[in-house]
Specification:
single chain; alpha+beta; 5-stranded antiparallel beta sheet; 3-stranded antiparallel beta sheet; 27% strand
């Protein structure tokens, strides 16, 4: 059995979605994925390579899953206008693949771009931040970070999925994306920070 003792919290709707799609849940990276049997426990996770992928049925039986009273909304309310729903919640799950991206490292007054492992989808990457306890969302084409303060990989992924849901083509060069920042990205980032950013940020 996984040695991690965390408790997973999800809504009943999310639980039903996991069981109907046979998704597992990883206790290491907090990601859903793969197709697992209802008795799956200690399977290999495709996202982080840890052997801590379990079925939600087994997590529930083991007392490691609790139901939240709040039902999530989708990101369908996000549009090309600078308006957002009151609650910032995850949208449909997207498939990120293992790859690399550049990360800007500032040292002694100069900036160096380092290539690091990342989860990549449609021009955005999720990876460890400069601080080992933080995660980043980065524009792959420019190595510019959208945020570097996500407290967990899951929080970073929620932001990346929200940005992709805006319909922006993140594979375009940074110069072509500047016009979208104030109208679309900043309202989403502000709402994400209010719910997920660590205190002091």
């Amino acid at each position: 059995m996984p040695t991690i003792t965390k408790t997973v919290v999800m809504t009943e709707t999310e639980y039903r979605e996991h069981t109907s799609n046979m998704w597992g849940y990883c206790l290491t990276c907090d990601q859903s994925g793969g197709r697992v049997e209802p008795d799956a426990w200690n399977y290999a996770c495709e996202e982080c390579d840890s052997n801590t992928l379990c079925s939600v049925e087994e997590l529930l039986v083991a007392g490691r899953l609790e139901f939240s009273e709040l039902e999530p909304s989708t990101l369908d309310a996000y549009s090309s206008h600078a308006c957002c729903p009151e609650e910032f919640t995850p949208g449909p799950k997207l498939r990120f693949t293992k790859g690399t991206c550049g990360m800007s490292i500032r040292e002694a007054g100069s900036t160096e771009i380092q290539t690091i492992p990342a989860l990549v989808h449609k021009g955005l990457a999720i990876h460890r931040s400069h601080e080992p306890t933080r995660w980043s969302v980065t524009h792959v084409g420019s190595a510019l970070g959208v945020t570097t303060i996500a407290p967990t990989q899951k929080a970073a992924r929620i932001l990346a999925e929200a940005l992709i849901a805006l319909g922006i083509d993140w594979t375009r060069p940074e110069a072509e994306l500047r016009g979208h920042v104030s109208k679309q990205v900043l309202p989403v980032l502000k709402m994400w920070k209010r719910k997920y950013a660590p205190r002091g940020y």
